[in-house]
Design brief:
The structure holds two protein chains of two kinds. By secondary structure, chain A is α/β, with parallel strands linked by helices. Chain A contains twelve helices and twelve strands. Chain A has an eight-stranded parallel β-sheet with strand order 1-12-9-8-5-4-3-2, with helices on both faces. A two-stranded antiparallel ribbon of chain A has the order 6-7. A two-stranded antiparallel ribbon of chain A has the order 10-11.
Chain lengths: ~300, ~210
């Protein structure tokens, strides 16, 4: 396989995967339990989720490690499982996809507020990311996605940790922005321009956005990202925002709708389009068809 | 009353030391504790709440303001109690089972405390049975539940159902909140109310507790 970063830089556009947690819940993960638990208790589910995304046409499958930093696992009483939760997740993803897709280590927020606003010390959180990313790198991921970040300081800690522990491993950092009167900002108040500049300086090989928005806003955020960065862009929106229908929670953006908006992302020059909350194999299939249609 | 206006401004800036100083000064000048709270601290928090809702300011500013509010409440609280300002009621707060996100819930707690409620804060990842048990143990009027994850929201329904099963739903009212929540969702699970932000939550809880 072509090295991940050169593919990300020179194309063709990569198709990412969709949500992991909801697919694990469909298979029996009890509500309220962390998805990372499935890696330890039901590895077959984790393999099946990754396989379904590859079969749907994903070029990239993310490991089931979004919440597997020691800090986050500790909140669920699983800190002793950091090594296994990360190493096993990589092995399971690789087992599922072989050489048909890149395996990318997912690294999400630590789940606590950093000082001075919260009580989590930056050095402790940095150490946690060093541990998690160190294991992911050693287990053989093709890249790391630091994602769903809302605090720029935390995102920088994760990117720096990645570059310290595995200097040659490509790192993308994607943040969650929301629309404010003066443009798009994270809930902590970081603008797209600020975020991009700081992440580049921290050593990110790619930047982008994921989660929190419907495809419409995501397209606008991608334009902002493009304006402020020449790095490859990684963009993974939700399938809309959650709504209630007949007593069930649904995300109302169909695969066809999402693929149509993703076409605009490709036109903006996004290097990887995938899905976040509410997206499943059908969304990935639609993204695949859109990307292939464009290419031919 | 410029001193109280200054106090409100200091709180809006999140200037903890200034808030503490001005609160003490107002007390020294024999202003009524209730006025210091309402026209100083809470007036400031109201502005912060509105600006955050409009995203003119962001979470760090809100958290600094909340911290400043605590700094002002320190010297003020004993006086409010001594003056016999009646408690508005008791509220149990919790982030529901499986959910570790407690920033919003904590803000609601600070605002409610400022508004004169007694808070029983159960923290995060709290199961339905524990929430209902705490409501019974403390004889609260209102249960406030928070969730950030769509996957943990259903636990709120379990609390509502449990209250019904124990025939407590007439005495204990429920309010829910959190980023993925909506009025529609609150209705669909049978919760009594929803609030989109911490400031609105105070008004809604007052209504639920019958003190509005």
């Amino acid at each position: 396989m072509e090295p991940f970063l050169s593919r990300l830089r020179s194309g063709p556009v990569l198709v990412g995967d969709g949500a992991t947690g909801t697919l694990l819940m469909e298979r029996g993960l009890p509500p309220g339990h962390p998805p990372e638990e499935a890696t330890l208790t039901h590895p077959a589910w984790v393999v099946e989720v990754a396989r379904r995304y590859v079969e749907a046409g994903a070029d990239v499958v993310e490991t089931n490690t979004f919440g597997a930093s020691p800090t986050k696992l500790a909140l669920a009483g699983l800190e002793g499982a950091t090594e296994r939760a990360n190493r096993e997740a990589v092995r399971l993803a690789r087992e599922a996809v072989g050489t048909r897709a890149y395996v990318v280590g997912s690294v999400g927020p630590c789940g606590r507020l950093l000082e001075p606003y919260g009580d989590a010390s930056c050095s402790a959180i940095h150490a946690g990311f060093l541990t998690q990313i160190g294991i992911l790198a050693e287990a053989g991921v093709d890249a790391v996605f630091v994602e769903t970040m809302t605090d720029l300081e935390e995102a920088k800690l994760a990117v720096r940790a990645a570059k310290e522990v595995a200097p040659d491993l490509p790192v993308a950092a994607t943040m969650t922005f929301e629309r404010a009167p003066r443009g798009f900002f994270t809930i902590m108040g970081n603008s797209v321009a600020e975020a991009v500049a700081a992440l580049e300086e921290a050593g990110a090989d790619a930047v982008g956005t994921n989660c929190g928005n419907r495809a419409e806003e995501t397209v606008a955020i991608a334009r902002e990202l493009r304006r402020h960065s020449s790095l490859p862009l990684v963009v993974q929106p939700n399938a809309g925002l959650p709504r209630m229908r007949d007593g069930h929670l649904v995300y109302d953006e169909s695969p066809a709708f999402m693929a149509d908006r993703a076409r605009q992302l490709v036109e903006i020059g996004v290097a990887l389009v995938g899905g976040c909350c509410g997206t499943g194999p059908d969304h990935v299939r639609a993204l695949r068809a859109m990307v292939d249609g464009r290419r031919t | 009353m410029t001193l109280l206006a200054d106090l409100a401004q200091a709180l809006i800036r999140g200037d903890r030391l200034q808030v503490s100083e001005l609160t003490c000064q107002a007390i020294a000048e024999s202003m009524s504790p209730k006025a210091i709270l309402d026209d100083g601290l809470l007036a400031g928090m109201k502005v912060v709440g509105v600006r955050f809702r409009e995203r003119e300011i962001f979470l760090p500013e809100v958290l600094m303001a909340a911290r400043a509010m605590y700094a002002g409440m320190g010297p003020l609280k004993p006086l409010l109690v001594a003056e016999g300002v009646p408690s508005q009621g008791k509220v149990v707060l919790a982030t529901v089972r499986g959910d570790l996100h407690d920033i919003g819930k904590n803000l609601v707690g600070i605002m409610l405390q400022g508004a004169g409620f007694e808070i029983v804060d159960l923290g995060f990842d709290v199961g339905p049975a524990a929430i209902v048990q705490a409501a019974k143990d403390h004889g609260v009027e209102v249960i406030g539940m928070s969730a950030l994850l769509t996957t943990t929201m259903p636990a709120m329904r379990e609390v509502v159902d449990l209250l019904r099963a124990e025939k407590l739903d007439g005495d204990v009212r429920t309010i829910v909140g959190g980023a993925p929540l909506s009025e529609e969702y609150a209705r669909s699970i049978g919760a009594d109310a929803y609030a989109p932000d911490a400031y609105t939550a105070v008004d809604v809880v007052k209504r639920l507790a019958g003190v509005a």
